[in-house]
Amino acid sequence: MKKYSFTGETKDLCGIIVRRIKAERDIPLAGVKRGDLGGWIESESNLSQNGECWVGDSAKVYGKARVTENARVIDRATVQDNAHVYGNALVEKCACLLESAKVYGKATVSDDVRVYGQVKVCGYAVVSSNTRLYGRAIICENAQVSGDARIYDDAKIYGSASVGDDAWVCDKARICGRAQVCANAFVFGECRIYGEAIVTGKTKVSGKAQVCGKSSVSGSSQISGNAKIYGNAIVTNTRVDGDKKISGDSWFYEGSPIDANAEEYADVIISGGSIVRLQMQ
Known about the structure:
- By secondary structure, the chain is mostly beta strands.
- Helix content is about 0%, strand content about 35%.
- Strand 1 (about 5-15) and strand 2 (about 15-25) form a beta hairpin.
């Protein structure tokens, strides 16, 4: 027995005719009863007759897009082109998947999110608000992306990391652990933000730089090259580059200069234009 049938009602989406569906049996995982009206699809190739997958409410799936297994596309969400939603994934509200985007596992894509290219959203990841995902970016595990964040190229957000506000992450950057990237931060190159690190403000992290541990980088700081910020270090409005390492309980703020010959600062407090370096143990 088929899971759904067409009601005969159609809608023209700029020359693409989609048809409304109706449940022919109960679909418990989707909360659907036999006879319930569903959303709109172009053909049966868009929604599998197997599994518990469903297109509901005013949602639309068309082109070569597919919804399979136990996935749901509901509310006013749109899945088009070659996009694929599967597993136990949920695409809801006004979210839109285009091109070859994939959402699977138990991931959720919500609100006004737009997902393009070959992006993958999987695991238990949640992408919400006005986020835009492009290229071959991967959002997985328990990661969360929200606000007006932009994730693109080959960037990867995973673990329990979060990216929000107006932050941008691109190139081959990696955000993981419980790290947070927010405000107007820009993370690019091959850098890594991990542990419980926080990158915020108008900070730029690039090259192969690392920000990790419980460190915090904020203001208009620039972290680049092979620089590493870790431990409980706090860096604000400071430029750190080359092979420099900042660790321990170091504080760098208000445009503090970093000694060009120094490789590592530990338990240091730097303010204004002065440098105070404690004896390394």
